[in-house]
C-alpha cells in the first residue's frame, strides 16, 4: 500500500495539504513535510472563497478555534472601486441569486430596476457591507440567510459537489503566515513529521520518477508520493521533472505586485467586511482589513509601470501609516503547469499554477487541489486514469478562472490610460469571445458560462458584467411579455430585509473584539 507522502515546501499550501491529508487518512498515511528555513512565503493570499469553510469543517475546526490565532475577519464580498470610472464602486457578494418566474432577479433589474445599483437592489449583502456590519450577531447566530448551517447531509462533500446547493454568506480574510503556523501545530500534533532543511537535489530513478530528495542536513528523504509546494520555483514539477508551463500572459499581463502589511488601529478605522480591489493607472490595489492591520498591495504589469513607481503609488494610496512599513516586491508567474500530476509528483499551490489575485483564487486553488488528491489518492498500480482525472480537474479550474478574470478587464468601462485602453484590444480566449456575444442578449446562466467546475456560479458573471459597465446588457425579450408584479415584490422584500438587518446587526469590529 502506498502510504508515504513527502511534501516539499511549507507555507499555506504545504500545511493545508499536510493537515487535510491527515484529517482524511489519519494514521493510515505517513506524512513528512520538508521546508526551508530560508525561503520566505509569498504571502499575498489572505482572502478566500466562501467554500473555504468546508476545509475547516473537514479538519474539525470551529471559527473560535482558528480565527483569533490568524487575526481573521469575515469577507462578505469583493468591492470593486474605479473600474467603471473614478468614484464608482459595486459589490460581487456571497449571496444566492434570487429568481422570479424562472428568470434571475438581475434580468428583471435590467428590465425595471428600482435604482441604478443592481448590487443593492438584487442583494442584501451590499448594504450590510456599506454599513460595516457583521454577518453574525453578538451571540454568534448567523444572519438569516436561506442556508442550513451544519446540515448533516451536506457534510463531507467536495466544493464542486456543494456548488449550486448552498451559498454561504461569507468567506474569510486572514494572515496567511499565521494560518500556516496554526496548521503546523495541528498537523504535527497528528503525526506529521516536520523537517526544516534545504532541499539540495531532487533524485530521479531510471523511469524518471522521483526516488527521493537530498537535504543539506538530513540527507536523503524518500516516499511514495511527492507533493511540490515550493511556490513559483516549482522545484519538483517544473525543474526536476521538466513539465512544461503554460503561460497566461497573453490574456492576463499583470505579472508583478508590491505588498505592504500596515499596522492600524482597527477599532478606530473600523472593519469593512470585504476585500476591496481599487483600479489604478496600470493595475489595481487590494485592501484586506484584518484584526490589527491591513494587508494591501498593488498588482500591475511591468510593461506599464516600474516597481519603484508601483511602490510609491501604493504608499500614497495607504497614507502616513505606510511610512515605516517594509515593502515586499513579488514577481508573479501567471499560468499553469501543463500537468500538475506527473509520475509520482503532484504540484499544489503556486507550483501548480496561479492567476493574479483579483478574485482571491490562490487559496481556493490549494483547497481544490488537495480535495482532488484525497479523492484520487493512488495505490500500488499507479493507475494512470487517476492522474488523468486529476490533471483534467485542475486544468478546468485554472482555465475557467482565467476566463472569469479576463472578463473583468474586457467588461471594465475605464479607458483613461494606455493600460486600460489595451484591455479592450488584447487577445481573449476564443470561448470567452463566443460567450460574450451570447451574454449581450441573454444574461449568463449555468448553461452559458465556462462549462466545467471552476468555483464560480453564473451570478458571479452577472455581477461583473453589470458592475463594470463596459458591455451593454439587455434583459430577456420574454420579460416584456411577463407580469412584473412578482419581481416588484421581490425587490421590496430585499429592501425590507436590508432595513431589518442594518438596524440589528453589530459592527464587524464590535463582533470580533468580543469573540477574539
Automatic annotation (TrEMBL):
Stretches that traverse the bilayer: none
Pfam families membership: Trp_halogenase
InterPro entries referenced in this protein's UniProt entry, alphabetically: FAD/NAD-bd_sf, Flavin-dep_Halogenase_NPB, Flavin_halogenase, Trp_halogen
Signal peptide: none
Family per similarity comment: Belongs to the flavin-dependent halogenase family. Bacterial tryptophan halogenase subfamily.
The protein, known as: Tryptophan halogenase family protein
Amino acid at each position: 500500500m502506498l502510504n508515504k507522502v513527502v511534501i516539499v515546501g511549507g507555507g499555506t499550501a504545504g500545511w493545508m495539504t499536510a493537515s487535510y491529508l491527515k484529517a482524511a487518512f489519519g494514521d493510515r498515511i505517513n506524512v513528512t513535510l520538508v521546508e526551508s528555513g530560508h525561503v520566505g512565503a509569498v504571502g499575498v493570499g489572505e482572502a478566500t472563497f466562501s467554500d473555504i469553510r468546508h476545509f475547516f469543517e473537514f479538519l474539525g475546526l470551529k471559527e473560535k478555534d482558528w480565527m483569533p490565532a490568524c487575526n481573521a475577519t469575515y469577507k462578505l464580498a469583493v468591492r470593486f472601486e474605479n473600474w467603471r470610472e473614478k468614484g464608482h464602486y459595486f459589490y460581487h457578494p456571497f449571496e444566492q441569486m434570487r429568481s422570479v418566474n424562472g428568470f434571475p432577479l438581475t434580468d428583471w433589474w435590467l428590465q425595471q430596476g428600482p435604482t441604478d445599483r443592481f448590487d443593492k437592489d438584487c442583494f442584501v449583502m451590499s448594504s450590510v457591507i456599506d454599513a460595516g456590519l457583521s454577518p453574525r450577531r453578538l451571540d454568534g447566530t448567523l444572519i438569516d440567510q436561506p442556508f442550513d448551517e451544519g446540515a448533516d447531509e451536506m457534510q463531507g462533500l467536495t466544493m464542486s459537489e456543494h456548488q449550486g446547493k448552498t451559498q454561504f454568506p461569507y468567506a474569510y480574510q486572514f494572515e496567511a503566515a499565521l494560518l500556516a503556523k496554526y496548521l503546523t501545530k495541528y498537523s504535527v500534533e497528528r503525526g506529521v513529521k516536520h523537517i526544516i532543511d534545504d532541499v539540495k537535489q531532487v533524485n530521479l530513478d531510471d523511469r524518471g520518477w522521483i526516488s527521493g530528495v537530498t537535504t543539506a542536513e538530513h540527507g536523503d528523504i524518500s516516499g511514495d508520493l511527492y507533493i511540490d509546494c515550493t511556490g513559483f520555483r516549482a522545484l519538483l514539477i517544473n525543474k526536476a521533472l521538466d513539465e512544461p508551463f503554460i503561460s497566461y500572459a497573453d490574456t492576463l499581463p499583470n505579472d508583478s505586485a508590491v505588498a505592504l502589511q500596515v499596522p492600524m488601529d482597527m477599532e478606530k478605522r473600523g472593519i469593512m467586511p470585504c476585500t476591496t480591489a481599487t483600479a489604478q493607472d496600470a493595475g489595481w490595489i487590494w485592501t484586506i482589513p484584518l484584526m490589527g492591520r491591513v494587508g494591501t498591495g498593488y498588482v500591475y504589469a511591468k510593461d506599464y509601470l516600474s516597481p519603484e513607481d508601483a511602490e510609491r503609488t501604493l504608499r500614497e494610496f495607504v497614507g502616513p501609516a505606510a511610512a515605516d512599513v517594509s515593502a515586499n516586491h513579488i514577481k508573479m508567474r501567471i499560468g499553469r503547469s501543463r500537468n500538475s500530476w506527473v509520475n509520482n509528483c503532484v504540484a499544489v499551490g503556486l507550483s501548480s499554477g496561479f492567476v493574479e489575485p483579483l478574485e482571491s483564487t490562490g487559496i481556493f486553488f490549494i483547497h481544490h487541489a488537495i480535495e482532488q488528491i484525497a479523492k484520487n489518492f493512488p495505490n500500488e498500480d499507479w493507475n494512470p486514469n487517476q492522474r488523468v482525472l486529476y490533471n483534467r480537474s485542475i486544468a478546468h479550474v485554472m482555465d475557467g478562472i482565467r476566463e472569469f478574470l479576463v472578463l473583468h478587464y474586457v467588461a471594465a468601462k475605464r479607458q483613461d490610460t494606455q493600460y486600460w485602453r489595451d484591455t479592450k484590444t488584447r487577445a481573449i480566449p476564443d470561448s470567452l469571445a463566443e460567450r460574450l456575444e451570447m451574454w449581450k442578449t441573454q444574461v449568463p446562466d449555468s448553461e452559458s458560462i465556462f462549462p466545467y467546475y471552476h468555483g464560480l456560479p453564473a451570478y458571479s458573471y452577472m455581477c461583473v458584467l453589470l458592475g463594470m459597465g463596459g458591455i451593454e446588457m439587455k434583459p430577456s425579450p420574454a420579460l416584456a411579455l411577463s407580469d412584473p408584479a412578482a419581481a416588484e415584490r421581490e425587490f421590496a422584500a430585499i429592501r425590507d430585509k436590508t432595513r431589518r438587518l442594518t438596524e440589528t446587526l453589530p459592527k464587524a469590529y464590535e463582533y470580533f473584539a468580543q469573540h477574539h
